[in-house]
Fold these 2 entries.
Entry 1:
Amino acid sequence: MKILVTGALGFIGKSLFAALKKEGYEVQGIDLVIADYDDYIRADITYFEDVWKLFKDNNGFDMVIHLAGEVGRLNGEEYPQRMIYVNEFGTLNLIKMCIEYKSKLVYFSTSEVYGTLFDEKEVMEEDFNVLSPTKVTNIYAMSKLFGEGIVNHYVKNYGLLAVGIRPFMVYGPGVIASKYKSAIDQFIYNALNDNLFTVHKSSERAWCYVDDFVNGVLTVIKHHEFKEKNYETYNIGTQEYIATEELAKLILELTGKPYDLMRVVELPDKFISGRKRFFNEKLRKLGWEQKVPLREGLMKVIEWYRGMM
Ligand SMILES: NC(=O)c1ccc[n+]([C@@H]2O[C@H](COP(=O)([O-])OP(=O)(O)OC[C@H]3O[C@@H](n4cnc5c(N)ncnc54)[C@H](O)[C@@H]3O)[C@@H](O)[C@H]2O)c1
């Protein structure tokens, strides 16, 4: 099977690309950077010519795993036009070529699409009868929900075969910490550098180590049954819930730093959910299970940051 991975140089893209290769798939990666890596070409998904040429030169793909895009809550609030433009136009360009070449599409959405539903219940793979642009809490979620809407439209009306992935709190080595990146990256980076850092009160998450997440994606592409006119999604993440205050303490313990580096602050009243509880039975029924416990995964990330110092 010949697979195109968009966003192949991103945090998840890099691991997914390597895992697909290891599994014996023929893989082509694209991203924005000019580089002469094996099986990689520079292509901007918002340039239809780039996407058109990519499909033409490769005589299409059996599957497109579409990760490329503008990512993150804060990024979306600071650069909303860019986020909407890249995530919608880029997705549309890929959809057009997937239909032309009969490529299956694996669309990367986000857990953020559930928005305020997290305040009401443990979410399942809710569909468009339940999800709503009035329930999401940030532009990033809006761009991904609209992206899912576009994919669903082309599935229902134009014969596209597609499945959606909703990742929950993926972490692992390789991310450069900043205010745009995850709490785990910020906590570890600041702890190792003896910087004070803030931690949200009343916040709780279940984190998923990148290898487990990538296995989740492999599980979906191997076992999901693509059906005509049927757009389905999978929550991919673990059920190892931890309060964010406890996560910060654990990171301070594992890095050997004092608890007084953390400052507990109120959860912001917008753009973010307190708890994100969800079901992942659908993925587990396909044979997936968590392999890397949080403590073990955190140690790998801490070692990676230490190697960067
Ligand atoms: N990391 C998570 O926990 C998480 C959670 C929910 C959803 N996701 C989704 O998973 C996907 C991958 O996330 P990630 O954490 O690896 O993010 P990332 O930012 O590391 O990777 C995204 C990649 O897309 C590339 N890109 C951006 N615009 C592009 C364009 N116009 N053309 C081609 N490439 C472009 C970037 O250069 C980058 O390498 C994204 O779609 C993201 O929304 C991730």
Entry 2:
Amino acid sequence: MSAPDAIDVRGLTKAYRQTTSGDSVTAIARLDFRIEPGEKLAIVGQTGCGKSTFFDILIGLESPSSGAIDIGGRTPYGDFDHFRGRIATVFQQDRLMPWRSALDNVRLSLELLGLSEQEQISRSTVWLERLGLGKFLSAFPHELSGGMRQRVAIARAFAVQPGILLADEAFGHLDEVTARQLREEFVGLAQASGATAVLITHQLEEAISVGNRILVFGKPATVLADIRLRDWQTHETAVLRDAIQATLQSNAADPRLAR
Ligand SMILES: Nc1ncnc2c1ncn2[C@@H]1O[C@H](COP(=O)(O)OP(=O)(O)OP(=O)(O)O)[C@@H](O)[C@H]1O
Ligand SMILES: [Mg+2]
């Protein structure tokens, strides 16, 4: 993996026109922030506040209505091919191909990167083993539990050795124990790889346990609070959680967050 570039989000705005009513819906009002290389960031926000839309723009599936996301002088939606293999996402649904084995699901993204067959197999095997699925290389998705399928999806994301790793509510639908385990593994692996990691969640515990920084999005998406966890002591966690909750409820920054 080459060192990731910073992600600069400048005046990012996105409006959608609804197909049925023709009305315009603002998903992202105006986002301004910078994610430093290697940072581990959690984004929290109410449902429908534009978090997934932000990711869609970040991975180049959507273009902004105005403003930009700049990564090393390029935009993901303008330079889709350049970012292939540099950004990988774990989604809420595992998005595995049902007709491919675990190994072949992980291989697919490496195939797209043009790696040799041998390299595809060895790298996919290493990552599946690392995620505890060494005995399930040839299992098909329907033969795996939800947690195991999500492990395959995580292996698939890491196998491309991306500089930027994204997770969109990737653990929210799993039982609490599995979710915590997978989240810790994800963050640990991201830390070890030096990748920039951005996790979307609406669970505050998850956001607080993730890493360096929490962005609280308003609805529509704009930055209500930008929290550096190093500014908070462990015994203040309850206050922090309350203040974030109050921010989400009132859609305005709670004064306790100003540090
Ligand atoms: N392709 C689309 N076309 C039209 N409207 C869209 C589209 N995608 C999202 N929206 C609208 O944009 C707003 C933000 O949606 P988005 O999926 O980004 O929210 P979210 O924060 O990820 O929510 P959740 O926490 O429920 O996943 C919503 O009002 C949604 O209806
Ligand atoms: Mg979403």
